[in-house]
Amino acid sequence: MSNPPDVGDQANLARYRKGALNWLAANLESFDVRDGLGNESQIKPLTELTILMACLLRTGLESLGGPARTILAWLVDVANSAPVRDQPVRTNNQLVLRAGMCAVVAVATGNRDIGHECAVQRALDAGLLDQSERHPHHVMIERMMLDLGGFRHGLPSYAELVGNSMAGRRPDALYQHTRSAYELTHDVMFGTALGNAGLEGMSAIDRNELGCVIGDLVVRYGRSGHWDLVGEFVMCWDFLELVPDDVYARAWRLLGLAQDSDGSVPGVRVDRDDGSEAEAPDKRFGSRYHTTLVVALAATASLRRVEPVSESCPILAPGPVKAPDGADLDTQWLIGLVDRVHESRKVTVGIEVLVGLTLVEARHPGKTNVDTVISGLRDCIVDVSQLRAVPAALTLLAHSICLRQGSEIPALSVFVGLITSIVTQPAPDEETELLWFDKRLLTAALGLSAMPAQPSVHALWAVLHDTAPEAMGSLVPLALACGGYGTRRPALLSSADQMGVRTLEAIAVEALWRSDLINGCGLIRAAHALSPLRHSRRKAISDFLDAQRLPDGGFGFVDYRAVTRSMGTDLDVELDLRLPTSLAVWWTLAEINGDFRLMGSPSNSGVGGIRR
Fold first, then answer.
1. Which residues pair with 610 in a beta bridge?
2. Which residues form the DUF6895 domain (predicted)?
């Protein structure tokens, strides 16, 4: 690259970068978001740290010093933590962070992280990037990180993005203020992919003219002590390959003087003689981390004009992401559960696994072996007492599935008879009537009782709007009962009832948006049973749910730390939360994507359920 800084400046730049990296390495705990990954403002610092490391890695691991290696090892540890790995990608900011982590981890460890890669690619394939309007430089950042990770995407080229940005509209320093100045620096920084994409994106820009604007603004913000913008503008200077002059050199001298002995750089000038303008101790990280990152990046950009770029840099995309088959992941995870659970829970988990495999098989025929699980259950269930802890509906479903497969487990059959003798009695109250509905429906499908009367949809409409999110669990059984758990053909609905179903859909979507997958899926199934979802809605929900799959199969992200704090360490997250959530998702995907109905008659064809 032409016009590098002189030799004396190179030594200073290396010193500034080392000091900044030392401070960042000493303050890694302040970047940690494992307790709040869903908070958009909290992930910003971590994303920016990840971007810095992706940029530094381009010079090769062999050139990184101790603090950079410390940061890198910490980022790999964060990327491998359960709260980060298991978090579905739901926002653009999460997408950028996870894509960057994929690139950093791949170069740092020499191995691609398929779990992270699949989470990002599934979100892309589901259309996440089509769901929001962004400034061109935000799209540039997305493209840069997705390119670093080798992801498939349809984002515009850098040249097109720069042409639509302020940098492409001949900006003038006369009209720039602080906010627009940041927009301009970001247009240049990310329009060149932090120097990784060269000048291709700037092909339609008069770089000398833009360089004059940058020089004007470096002087302005240097005089006012706005070190954050000074750092970003000198970075732009190097990315545009402009000739270093006295303004450039003075900007670096000012940044060097602003850098404290600990290596940090304040965002704006700090008056050390006037305590009223000095930083409060608890605000120090927030007021310094970004500018310190900027100085490390800017020094790297300047030094790169003389440093070689590593042949193993992460900009060399590792190739298209090939996601493992979701049904295979789900099946392997389910089968593995049986071997891992304690003996006291083996029957309950075995039955849940049987139901889960049946649901996976309904959508992906040939992916599972239900008969093997039935054989294992037959060996495991030797006494009726072992079934007392199993939810009655699950016991009935398991018995029904066994019959469909031409098999029977004696103890299971006896226990089903006991359940039938209870639920065929008159219910003592309306609440019990509703709770027994699914059991009565299943016993009727087994030919052991009469078909129960379906609740009126008017009872559902009466409480629909007044059910708070925290009380959603009471709404779901009523909604499913009104839909007959999908076993009856929808009746011709009045316009008022159609509006009710539409509201039910909207509440279900709200629950899914809140990551309440169990209740959201239950309401979606109920709405679909009352009035089949339109094709576009079915596809959107299916894509969304598939994008929530965990790296090793199944569904149900949980912040593990928060759960153990609030619910105690006795809770088994995998069995008590993840497995029920997975069953809810598989059940919904099976029903809305075909005519499969789990709660049907064993005499009907179809693996594990009735196909209408």
1. 597
2. 18-300
Q: What's the token pair of residue 72?
A: 């890198």
Q: Is residue 269 pLDDT above 50, yes or no?
A: yes
Of residues 518, 517, 538, 516, the one with CA closest to residue 527: 538
Give the span between the Cα atoms of 557 and 548, in whole angstroms: 8
d(CA 147, CA 132): 20
Closest to 556 (Cα-Cα) out of 578, 572, 526? 578
Task: Give 221-271 as a DSSP string.
Answer: HHHHT-HHHHHHHHHHHHHTTPPP-HHHHHHHHHHHHHS-TTS---SS---
pLDDT score at 605:
38
Instruction: Give phi and psi for 197, each to the nearest 5.
Output: -100, 10
Contact 306, 11 (CB under 8 A): no
Distance of alpha carbon 552 from alpha carbon 547, whole angstroms: 13
As beta bridge partners, residue 243 has: none
Contacts of 566 (CB under 8 A, 6+ apart): none
Which residue do the tokens 């007492």 mark? 385
C-alpha to C-alpha distance for 232 and 44, rounded to whole angstroms: 17
pLDDT at 610: 41
Nearest to 197 by CA among 141, 129, 134: 141
Phi/psi for 597 (5° steps) reads: -135, 110
CA-closest candidate to residue 520, choices 581, 567, 568 = 581
Position 135: which residue type? H
Question: How far apart, in whole angstroms, are the C-alpha atoms of residue 246 and residue 240?
Answer: 17
Does 277 score more than 60 pLDDT?
Answer: no
CA neighbor of 33 nearest in space, from 23, 24, 41, 43 = 43
121's CB contacts (< 8 A; 6+ apart) are 151, 152, 321, 323
Written as six digits, the tokens of 202 are 């700037």
Of the ranges 114-128, 357-371, 479-493, which one carries the lowest mean pLDDT score? 479-493
Report the candidate in 335, 282, 313 with the shortest Cα–Cα distance to residue 554. Answer: 335
